[in-house]
Amino acid sequence: xxxxxxxxxxxxxxxxxxxxxxxxxxxxxxxxxxxxxxxxxxxxxxxxxxxxxxxxxxxxxxxxxxxxxxxxxxxxxxxxxxxxxxxxxxxxxxxxxxxxxxxxxxxxxxxxxxxxxxxxxxxxxxxxxxxxxxxxxxxxxxxxxxxxxxxxxxxxxxxxxxxxxxxxxxxxxxxxxxxxxxxxxxxxxxxxxxxxxxxxxxxxxxxxxxxxxxxxxxxxxxxxxxxxxxxxxxxxxxxxxxxxxxxxxxxxxxxxxxxxxxxxxxxxxxxxxxxxxxxxxxxxxxxxxxxxxxx
Length: 295
Prior knowledge:
Blueprint: H1 2-32, H2 34-40, H3 43-46, H4 60-91, H5 94-108, H6 112-135, H7 154-178, H8 182-190, H9 195-206, H10 208-224, H11 227-232, H12 250-257, H13 264-294
Helix pairs in contact: 1-13, 2-13, 4-7, 4-10, 5-7, 6-7, 7-10, 8-9, 10-13, 12-13
């Protein structure tokens, strides 16, 4: 009995410690970003010009770049992840599945800077020499209008993020599929259902909460990714509908400019970007919790 109380007290202390660290971090962001909010107000979020040499700072290009790369990468990754997880859990032999799952988990552990180097030497040339000319036939669609010749653009960032977040979703969805009770599937098979029908009408509906959680986890991974994206996105604070134009993200500009920022307004603006990133992350988590409870 005493051991249980001690354990409860330890876990309670650790929980409060974590919350204290989080709120202290949030407080520091708010306090150290006050200069920007006093100077620009909410216009800081809507301004499109970022020029440290003239002390002009606007967050919209970075917000746009971060959301664009994250949303499109999740759009690409989501069906691939579900298909791969279904293959590993429901189709392939369990022994082969264990080996392939280990490989997927190994890919998830590759450092982002290594993936960024792969992106520079292989992905960027692929986008520049093949993907952009191929999709150039769809240039009447603003998303695919050609904007440059370097391959350092939003499309490269989207593809590299898709590669990075897919293993996280695959592992999450596969674990959920493995937890589907066999009785439910056997009951469906006894009614004459085929495997694809069991997956569509039993397994996937059973794990819909895990699908939402996995998607949010992957989105958060893409939303906060820094090094790999910085290395391939082109790092230009502009807003363009074309995915083949250079872009910039909030984590990227913070990583590139914080160590070189001298002017107080510049430093405050970078901290304000971090606060915006944190605020959006919190909103996403709240939305995910709401969706899970709704279901």
